[in-house]
Amino acid sequence: NVDGLTEGGTYTFAVFAQNSKGWSAQSSTVQVNLLGRPSAPGVPNLSNETSTSLSASWSAPSDNGGASITNYALRRYSGSSASGAVVSDNAFSLSRTVSGLTPGATYTFTTVAYNSVGWGAESGPRTITLSKRPDPPTGVAASDVQSISLAISWSAPGNTGGLPITNYLVRRWTGSSASGSYTDITVAASARSALI
Questions:
Q1: Residue 42, exposed/middle/buried by CB under 10 A (0-12, 13-18, 19+)?
Q2: Is the pLDDT of residue 153 over 90?
Q3: Which stretch, 47-51, 79-83, 113-117, has highest mean pLDDT?
Q4: 3-state secondary structure 127-184
Q5: Is 130 helix (H, G, I), strand (E, B) or coil?
Q6: Do 112 and 40 meet the contact criterion of CB atoms below 8 Å apart?
Q7: Which residues pair with 54 in a beta bridge?
């Protein structure tokens, strides 16, 4: 055995023979590149986002360490940095769908590749804040009350869930409580009032 070798290192070897007269001349040399761990895959690209899932894809490492890559892991961190507790999802190709995420939460994703030597370097991070349902509109008020008509007005939600508002819905119940049967009126996203 040869001691003192470094994983992934390059070495040159020659062999000498010895008899009672001494050592031979040097043999021809052979250069050996030891197997190493893969370099980092590409930073994951995130797509097809919903409030609880997304798709991730990435490029293969530029250096496989001299051995075939047999596995990838998509690492998921809670928050805006690749630190702290990590959830690792195995992926045997260059993509992975992640589900079970929390609406409105922020996650940071990285990737790593695996070969027969072990797990390689971690990619750069990609951070995303998932969309969620909007907060309720505020400042709901009635005005211009007539015998058979009135106007309902409101202000836009303070938090739209990370997505544009596409519509408002004004719901009407008969009576003094918001229960029982109701009638809905859909209003354009640009509106802040509805004539009922």
A1: middle
A2: yes
A3: 113-117
A4: EEECCCCCCCCEEEEEECCCCCCCEEEEECCCCCCCCCCCEEEEEEECCCCCCCCEEE
A5: coil
A6: yes
A7: 98
Q: What is the pLDDT of residue 3?
A: 77
Cα distance between residue 119 and residue 132, in whole Å: 35
CA pseudo-torsion sign 84, 87, 91, 94: negative
Give me the residue label for tokens 């690749």. 82
Alpha-carbon span 160 to 164, nearest angstrom? 7
Tens digit of pLDDT for each residue in 83-104? 877 888 888 889 999 999 998 8
Question: Are 6 and 34 contacting, i.e. CB atoms less than 8 angstroms apart?
Answer: yes
Category of 60 on φ-ψ map: left (φ > 0), alpha (ψ -120 to 50) or beta: beta
SS in 3 state form for 53-101? CEEEECCCCCCCCCCCCCEEEEEEEECCCCCCCEEEEEECCCEEEECCC
pTM for the whole structure: 0.71
Res 1 pLDDT > 80 = no
d(CA 46, CA 21): 70
pLDDT of 29 reads 94
Burial class of residue 132, CB neighbours in 10 A (0-12, 13-18, 19+): middle
